[in-house]
Specification:
This protein is an alpha/beta fold. The protein contains eleven helices and 14 strands. Helix content is about 35%, strand content about 15%.
């Protein structure tokens, strides 16, 4: 079988069992697959917490939510599901071990992607080659020390597919309506689920005090469900309380809707940041261990704060300068200025439209 014959495939499974940011970029690959395989049924396998997001993507016919894939029993259950569905081709879209195991154990006749990955979490400092089973690729592709948006798209390139045109935003179906604040608001995500990517608590409080004093916007602070108590303790003394609120553990559908209506998103290097940027929301990204060329938003309506140190970049397993870490270097004043810059631009666009 050659690449041109892929168009005759009945079904394809796209496997991305990594975190939210990787799923966001994998959706770009799903759109490429849909453009190149218009008559093929496309299923996407993701962690069950991201199934709702994939369900909003029109390019995907079926979203399968896997659970407990960080442990072998969960991976085996997911692989058995792949076998039962008998997909014509299974694709691993990022170089992590979970994707490799499910793709290989699925035993489809054809497979493509990062089939040799052995690492438990992504390592942007290493290179990973794309390979195939059952057919020859259109060309050799290797991912390494490049923007994470290219991870899944390189699988498409290896198949000879054309990329999504630059600047094409997701065409998400309208998510379920969700109760939004009255009036304009910012969405703020100070944590990251990854210790060394988080913004220090003192910086968070100072930033919020300055924002609440400078503008009449409300601020919605988001986080995972298990972070709600920590966020409420962090914000307990903030005033006025009627202009700041915590919304933790949002469904993917509600998170999309909340982000779509936000004036500005401010957040650490995390999945919500990648999702907000993909939706075209004006963003201020607070980056630390990973540099902008790897994880920073490339959207014109985005701003990035990053202080490169002699230990940058790193894999975030430990910090060699815990009292003077890269995330500590980002000041509240810097972030406020970036927000002000974005508000000036967006208000100017609104005036021009008027």
């Amino acid at each position: 079988m050659n690449v041109s014959e892929l168009r005759s495939l009945r079904s394809v499974a796209l496997v991305e069992l990594n975190r939210l940011g990787d799923v966001v970029h994998a959706l770009s690959a799903a759109r490429v697959f849909r453009r190149n395989l218009p008559n093929t049924t496309i299923t996407m396998l993701v962690d069950e917490m991201y199934q709702g997001l994939v369900g909003l993507e029109p390019a995907v016919d079926h979203a399968f939510g896997a659970n407990d894939t960080r442990e072998m029993p969960g991976l085996i259950r997911t692989a058995l599901h792949v076998r039962r569905e008998d997909f014509d081709c299974v694709c691993s879209l990022s170089p992590i071990l979970r994707n490799t195991i499910v793709t290989r154990l699925g035993r489809s006749r054809f497979a493509v992607g990062y089939l040799g990955a052995k690492q438990r979490k992504p390592n942007f400092l290493k290179t990973s080659e794309i390979s195939s089973i059952g057919f020859e690729l259109a060309g050799k592709e290797v991912y390494g020390f490049e923007h994470i948006s290219l991870t899944a798209l390189k699988v498409c390139r290896a198949l000879g597919f054309a990329d999504v045109p630059p600047g094409l935003q997701p065409r998400f179906q309208q998510p379920t309506q969700y109760a939004l604040p009255d009036g304009p608001y910012f969405v703020f995500h100070p944590l990251a689920g990854w210790r060394f990517r988080e913004w220090p608590d003192d910086n968070v409080r100072e930033f919020l005090r300055k924002v609440l004093a400078a503008w009449g916007y409300k601020v919605i602070v988001i986080g995972a469900g298990n972070e709600e108590k920590r966020l409420r303790q962090l914000l307990d003394a903030m005033q006025p309380q009627d202009r700041i609120s915590v919304r933790a553990g949002l469904t993917m559908e509600n998170l999309v809707y909340l982000l779509q209506q936000a004036s500005v998103f401010i957040g650490t290097d995390s999945g919500p940041y990648q999702l907000a940027a993909a939706l075209g929301v004006p963003t201020v990204g607070l980056l630390g261990p990973a540099p902008p060329e790897i994880t920073g938003s490339t959207d014109p309506s985005s701003r990035i704060l990053y202080h490169r140190l002699d230990c940058s970049p790193c894999m975030q397993d430990k910090c060699v300068r815990p009292t003077d870490a890269c995330m500590h270097r980002i000041s509240a004043d810097e972030v406020v200025r970036k927000v002000e810059d974005l508000l000036t631009i967006t208000s100017g666009k609104a005036a021009n439209r008027g």
